[in-house]
Design brief:
The chain has about 160 residues and is mainly beta. It has helices spanning about 65-75, 150-155; strands spanning about 1-5, 25-30, 35-40, 45-50, 50-55, 60-65, 75, 80-85, 95-100, 105, 110-120.
């Protein structure tokens, strides 16, 4: 996979797997060292990584949260997983959201997300009048537990 390190990430290392069996490459914040980005509780911010990639056709890159940031600070990826399509060539940015109770400072070089490369399956849609029956049927949210779909829809 081709990767370009943009000027705002010139001194940052390239993404790397942190163990032999890791699925994701760690992405780092390419914010100015003198201007960390502070995310207030219940707010979000787009954090630049200073990287652009060229994925092969038939692949996507998924931007996923880092469990340590979520567990310790309530920081996660807002649109998890974010999808980078094979034809996108712009800078990768990570939408971080603060679900914690304290402001969170994103400093230069902080590992903010994981990048997972995955194959894409392309479906061929075929319109039909009705779908095959299954045991589950139309049961959706919570249907395999104790709550009914109607209870979930009524909450809105």
């Amino acid at each position: 996979m081709q990767i370009v390190r943009l000027p705002n990430a010139a001194d940052l290392p390239l993404p790397a797997y942190q163990s032999a069996s890791a699925a994701g490459l760690d992405l780092m914040a390419a914010v100015p060292a003198e201007r960390p980005v502070t995310i207030a509780p219940a707010s979000y911010a787009a954090i630049p990584t200073g990287l652009s990639i060229a994925l092969p056709d038939g692949f996507e890159a998924q931007v996923r949260p880092r469990s340590g940031l979520a567990a310790r600070h309530g920081i996660t990826v807002l649109n998890a997983p974010g999808t980078i399509d094979a034809d996108y060539r712009g800078e990768i940015a990570v939408l971080l959201v603060n679900h914690g109770k304290e402001p969170f400072a994103v400093s230069r070089g902080l590992r903010i997300a994981q990048l997972v490369i995955a194959p894409v399956a392309y479906a061929q849609l075929r319109e039909v009048r009705e779908l095959d029956e299954t045991v589950r049927g139309t049961g959706g949210f919570g249907s395999t537990g104790t709550e009914t779909n109607q209870n979930l829809y009524d909450r809105g």
